[in-house]
Every structure is written in structure tokens, then in C-alpha cells.
Amino acid sequence: MSKRILVVEDQEDNRRILRDLLTSADYEMMEAENGEEALVAVAKQRPDLILMDIQLPILDGYEATRRIKADPTLKDVPIIAITAIALSGDEAKARAAGCDDFVPKPYSPRELLAKIRELLR
């Protein structure tokens, strides 16, 4: 059975790019457009990994990550923060919120897949 990855991203173009990348690598992809949708999707569908945009409407990626990691049944789900606005200190802030890794946009598809495979071992 393929691993399920939840992509939390508010931009359709970015979701389409990730959809193509992940399905070509035989991952099953679920989608959420904001942090609140992410919390609902995680509770219902239990992904194996989450790709979390930081700049999201309604509930940002930092807070969504904190809430997911605060749940004892979800704390072991790896989360990779992905952000277009990578300022100094953002990686530390993402890791402090509970993210397991950090990828600034634009990213190398090959490097992103390598990080996903590493965290899904």
C-alpha cells in the first residue's frame, strides 16, 4: 500500500505541482487549503507524512503544526514545512513549532522526495 501524504497548501498551482510529483513517485496525496482543513484531514485520514505550507489563511502552518504535534496519537507524524518566504529564523521557528524538516521554495523536486523518503523510513 502506498504512503499517504497530506499537502497543506493554499495555492492551487503549488498543489498541482506537488500532486504531479507525489503521484509519479507512487504516493497517495490528500489536500487541505488551510490550517483548519489540515486538522480535520489529519484526524480523519491519518496521513503518513504532512507537507505544511507556513503562510496559510485561517490558521497558519506554525499553529496547525503545534496542534497536530500536541495530540499524542499524531505527534509521530512527520511534518515538513514548506515556505516561499524563508527569512532568517524561519527554519528555527518551524522546528520549534514541531516540524521535522524545512524546505524553502523554490525547492528541488529530487531533494524534496529524498527528504520525504528519509522521514517515511
List keywords for this structure.
single chain, five-stranded parallel sheet, 121 residues, globular, 44% helix
Overview of the structural elements:
- The mean pLDDT is 93.
- The two termini are 14 Å apart.
- The protein has helices at residues 12-24, 35-45, 61-70, 90-97, 109-119; strands spanning 4-8, 28-32, 49-53, 79-83, 101-104.
- 44% of the residues lie in helices and 20% in strands.
- It has five helices and five strands; from the N terminus they run E-H-E-H-E-H-E-H-E-H.
- It is globular.
- Strand 3 (49-53), helix 3 (61-70) and strand 4 (79-83) form a beta-alpha-beta unit.
- The protein is an alpha/beta fold.
- The chain has a single domain (4-120), classed as 3-Layer(aba) Sandwich (Rossmann fold), CATH 3.40.50.2300.
- Helix 2 runs parallel beside helix 3 (61-70).
- The longest helix is centred in the first third of the chain and has 13 residues, at 12-24.
- The chain has a five-stranded parallel beta sheet with strand order 2-1-3-4-5, sandwiched between helices.
- Please tally the β strands and state the result: 5
Instruction: Give the quaternary arrangement of the chains.
Output: single chain
Within CATH, the superfamily carries the name Response regulator
Order of helices and strands: EHEHEHEHEH
Major beta sheet, strand line-up: 2-1-3-4-5
Mean pLDDT: 93
Report strand %.
15-25%
- For the record, what CATH class applies? Alpha Beta
Count of individual helical segments: 5
